[in-house]
Amino acid sequence: MSEFEQITGLLIRLGASETQAKTMAAQIQRRCDQWAKERGMSREEAMTQLLQRIIKGRNGEAPVREDRSGPGASN
To answer: CA 75, CA 68: separation in Å to the nearest integer?
Structure first.
């Protein structure tokens, strides 16, 4: 089973429709690659953090705020 299929399955189990899950899975994979590059972390670590945020958000938990001072940070 591919990573895309695994993420899609997770999102469906969290309540997304199949169409929504496929769209979100593709977005998550792109964001994962961005985070890995921008933050100097492994792709696996970036994916873990993204999926943890998704699950916490689905459970109604507030995300932990980060101190961002790099490009794209709003001050």
So the answer is: 9
Question: Closest Cα partner for 57 from 17, 6, 22, 16?
Answer: 16
Q: How far is CA 36 from the centre of its chain?
A: 11
pTM recorded for the entire structure: 0.77
- Return d(Cα 31, Cα 47) in angstroms, integer: 9
Check: CB of residue 47 under 8 Å from CB of residue 32. yes
Residue-wise pLDDT tens digits, 15-65: 999 999 999 999 999 999 999 999 999 999 999 999 999 989 888 887 766
Q: Sign of the CA dihedral 55, 57, 60, 62?
A: positive
